[in-house]
């Protein structure tokens, strides 16, 4: 079915506005809320095992369309693999707030809502949108757009409303979505560089394609791979330094941006500490330190610190995140290191503590993580999209980098 471009644009705007707030404090716990409703225990269980619950909790404005245990039995009788169940359930998570009142007062009687399936980056074309339409007799119909424009389910009752954080509603049954229910691409069929190129990381993807590092990525795909992909802006600013490296060192730098384990954002949040990378080879450590900084996950080398701005694709066993800086391993950029005593096992430099007043009102243009004597040679720090700073300034920085990333889409 073809979508009206204006409606698509409006929905894209909704997705964007939500993307801007991915690290809001967790104001609710969907698992705990649903636990109060035993007739939704199966739905609740599958939100947990698919990790969708973590994703839901990290959002600010969300609607969960729950189906009761009978409805879930219908879904489970199809014996889908867990990855498919995840996609199907992700269609039931709308990235906007729809309480009972709003559902019955939709402007023009119909609306399209972007879903978490759409946001995974794996939904093809226009799939991943749900059509909500006010029907005769006070009913509200729901239909996955890729299912031919039929209203397959209806609103039953509200279960929980916390405006405008989370609304959990019951709908009559699972929404059929041929695309979400389609067999998921085997990991070896995911073309990493194509996915990166299509989502604001074309420079990194092209650089990777020109290096043997690309094969290292491919070789690790099946066993689990998490990639920290520098945004185009970050990568462009870094290219002069990159070209200055030997071919071997270029390969190590690229391999430094991936770890051979599947890790979602919530897994990263709960596993702070040093991690090996694809570049790790015996004595050459090439380690990264993952560290939560409030709701933001940072990656620290002893030379620089990058922030994860958003998730580009999450399709078990592959997760790709966009980061706002090129990660500079001390093994290759010794001269960029602070001339302080060996920072070893915890290489985190304390440079940020010297400045960045924690004033929440820090303006977007505050110099924040601006040059210190030791990182003035770090060209990536000159990029406009990495305004750092604590609390407010940091948040603005994240928004800016996301905005830039979006403009590049
Ligand atoms: C949400 O609640 C469940 C059940 O009470 C608990 O197991 C889980 O750890 C909670 N999640 C978070 C992020 O607090
Ligand atoms: C409602 O319909 C009118 C007239 O067709 C249109 O101009 C307007 O954009 C629609 N509003 C929404 C929110 O779709
Ligand atoms: C939702 O589906 C109905 C029925 O197919 C259609 O008339 C309506 O235009 C759709 N709404 C949107 C916003 O596309
Ligand atoms: C929504 O979340 C914010 C914090 O993120 C909280 O202050 C507010 O009370 C929440 N609203 C409701 C209705 O729970
Ligand atoms: C991914 O696609 C690019 C071109 O878009 C191609 O050059 C590359 O070989 C593909 N990678 C794999 C593993 O098929
Ligand atoms: C390239 O390497 C040379 C020699 O190590 C150094 O002087 C120069 O500053 C480097 N250029 C860049 C852009 O890093």
For this entry, give a set of tags:
alpha+beta; FAS1 domain; 2 domains; 7-stranded mixed sheet; 14 strands; repeat; proteoglycan; FAS1_domain; membrane
Description:
The protein is α+β, with helices and mostly antiparallel strands. The protein has two domains: 5-181, FAS1 domain (Roll); 187-407, FAS1 domain (Roll). The protein has helices spanning 5-19, 30-35, 41-49, 52-57, 69-76, 82-90, 100-104, 116-119, 178-181, 192-198, 202-209, 213-221, 232-243, 247-255, 265-269, 391-407; strands at 62-66, 93-94, 110-114, 129-134, 140-144, 153-162, 166-171, 225-230, 258-259, 273-275, 288-293, 296-300, 305-315, 318-323. A hairpin with a 5-residue loop joins strand 4 and strand 5 (140-144). The protein starts with a helix and ends with a helix. Keywords: Cell membrane, Glycoprotein, GPI-anchor, Lipoprotein, Membrane, Proteoglycan, Repeat, Signal. Residues 1-27 form the signal peptide. Residues 226-330 form the FAS1 domain.
Cα distance, first to last residue? 24 Å
Helix content: 25-40%
Instruction: State the helix count.
Output: 16
Bound molecules: 2-acetamido-2-deoxy-beta-D-glucopyranose
The CATH topology of the largest domain corresponds to: FAS1 domain
Q: Give the number of domains.
A: 2
Taking all residues together, what is the mean pLDDT? 79
Residue windows where pLDDT falls under 50 for at least 5 positions: 8-24, 341-409
If classified by CATH, what would the architecture of the largest domain be? Roll
Rg (C-alpha, Å):
22 Å
Q: Classify the oligomer.
A: single chain
**Element order: H for helix, E for strand:** HHHHEHHEHEHEEEEHHHHEHHEHEEEEEH
Number of strands: 14
Question: What's the overall geometry?
Answer: elongated
Percent of residues in β-strands: 15-25%
Signal peptide: 1-27
Subcellular location: Cell membrane
Pfam families: Fasciclin
Family: Belongs to the fasciclin-like AGP family.
């Amino acid at each position: 079915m073809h979508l009206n471009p204006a409606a698509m644009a409006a929905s894209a705007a909704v997705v964007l506005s939500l993307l801007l707030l991915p690290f809001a404090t967790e104001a609710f716990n969907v698992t705990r809320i649903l636990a109060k409703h035993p007739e939704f225990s199966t739905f609740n269980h599958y939100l947990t095992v698919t990790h969708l619950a973590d994703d839901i909790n990290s959002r600010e404005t969300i609607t969960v369309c729950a189906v009761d245990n009978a409805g879930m039995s219908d879904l489970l009788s199809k014996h889908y693999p867990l990855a498919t169940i995840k996609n199907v359930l992700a269609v039931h998570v709308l990235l906007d707030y729809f309480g009972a009142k709003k559902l019955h007062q939709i402007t023009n009687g119909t609306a399209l809502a972007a879903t978490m399936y759409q946001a995974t980056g794996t939904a093809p074309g226009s799939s991943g949108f749900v059509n909500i339409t006010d029907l005769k007799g006070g009913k509200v119909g729901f239909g996955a757009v890729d299912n031919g424009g039929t209203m397959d389910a209806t609103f039953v009752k509200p279960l929980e409303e916390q405006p405008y954080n989370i609304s959990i509603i019951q709908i009559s049954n699972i929404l059929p979505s041929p695309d979400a229910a389609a067999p998921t691409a085997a990991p070896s069929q995911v073309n990493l560089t194509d996915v990166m190129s299509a989502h604001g990381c074309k420079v990194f993807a092209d650089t990777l394609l020109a290096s043997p590092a690309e094969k290292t990525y491919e070789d690790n795909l099946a066993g689990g791979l998490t990639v920290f992909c520098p945004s185009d802006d970050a990568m462009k600013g870094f290219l002069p330094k990159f070209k200055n490296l030997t071919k071997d060192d270029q390969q190590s730098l690229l391999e430094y941006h991936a770890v051979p384990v599947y890790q979602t954002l919530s897994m990263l949040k709960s596993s702070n500490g040093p991690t090996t990378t694809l570049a790790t080879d015996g004595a050459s450590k090439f380690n990264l330190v993952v560290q939560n900084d409030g709701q933001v996950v940072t990656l620290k080398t002893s030379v620089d610190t990058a922030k994860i701005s958003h998730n580009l694709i999450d399709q078990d066993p592959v997760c790709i995140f966009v980061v706002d800086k090129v990660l500079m391993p001390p093994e290759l950029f010794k001269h960029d290191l602070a001339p302080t005593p060996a920072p070893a096992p915890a290489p985190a430099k304390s440079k940020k503590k010297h400045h960045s007043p924690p004033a929440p009102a820090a303006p977007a243009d505050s110099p924040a993580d601006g040059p210190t004597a030791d990182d003035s040679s770090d060209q990536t720090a000159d990029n406009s999209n990495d305004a750092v700073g604590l609390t407010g300034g940091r948040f603005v920085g994240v928004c800016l980098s996301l905005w830039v990333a979006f403009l590049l889409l």
